[in-house]
Amino acid sequence: MTTVVLMAKECLPGRVKTRLHPPFSLVDAARIAEASLSDTITTLSALPVERRVLCLDGEDAPHLPPGWEVLPQAAGGLDERIGAALDACRGPALVVGMDTPQLSADDVADIGGWPDDVDAWFGPAEDGGFWALALREPRGDLVRGVPMSRPDTGARQRERLEAAGLRVGTLPRLTDIDDAESLRAVTGLLRDGRLTALLRELA
Questions:
Q1: For the chain, what is the domain count?
Q2: Which helix (H) or strand (E) is 195 found in, with range?
Q3: Is the model's pTM score more than 0.90?
Q4: pLDDT at position 151, please?
Q5: Which of 1, 6, 75, 121 could form a disulfide with 50 if both were Cys (CB 3.0 to 4.6 A apart)?
Q6: Containing domain of residue 152, as a range?
Q7: Which long-range contacts does 140-147 make (Cβ < 8 Å, 24+ apart)?
Q8: Cα 129–3–12 angle (5° rounding)?
Q9: HEC profile of 18-61
Q10: For residues 13-25, average pLDDT
């Protein structure tokens, strides 16, 4: 059974996308986060996987299409939370975040079928982090202890995978929406969806 796990945070003003303020208000920054999450859910809902999990940091989950389940994020830092989500999977797993609404099925197409010469797939982000991590055999210890939210997070995570003897494939490099500059970089890559409509409204 292949599982896709979406790590998400409840989209409350002042709690998400605060680096978009300014130029956006905290309320509009939260709306951008909510639209980004919604578009990501739409993309992941179309993937040919058997299980879809929204791993939520918060109380109220967004509207989800049929077939999704909601699990609370574990306590601790992001490495601990991703690690716990991986430990809850059985069979191949893909973990992604909510900050890359430009994500398309093509970006993760290489994962399909799990080629014999790949044990893990790694999706690097422009800011030095990573937007996706897929493991043929999910193990939380492969993430725990990796320092998060740093320019070398992605490099350190890939080193951890390779040090464990895993053969690592590389997914396309994507930009996380963190601030106004990265939002502008992503805007031209978006498909018509909730975030595109919202940005038109805010403009």
A1: 1
A2: helix 194-202
A3: yes
A4: 96
A5: 1
A6: 3-202
A7: 140/82, 140/83, 140/84, 140/85, 140/86, 140/87, 141/83, 142/83, 142/86, 142/166, 143/79, 143/82, 143/83, 143/86, 144/79, 144/80, 144/83, 145/79, 146/79, 147/79
A8: 55
A9: HHHCCCCCHHHHHHHHHHHHHHHHHHHHCCCCCEEEEEEECCCC
A10: 97
Distances (CA, A) of 107 to 14, 170, 176, 183: 31, 10, 14, 19
Residue 31 in tokens: 């709306």
Place of tokens 């038109």: 200
CA dihedral over 148, 153, 156, 160, signed as positive or negative = positive
Quickly tell me which residue has 């791993």 as its tokens: 55
Residues 6+ apart with CB under 8 A from 15: 9, 30
Which CATH number characterizes residue 195's domain? 3.90.550.10
What does the alpha-carbon distance between residue 86 and residue 104 come to, in Å, rounded to a whole number?
Answer: 22
Q: What is the pLDDT of residues 87-136, one digit of tens each?
A: 999 999 999 999 999 999 999 998 988 899 999 999 999 999 999 999 99
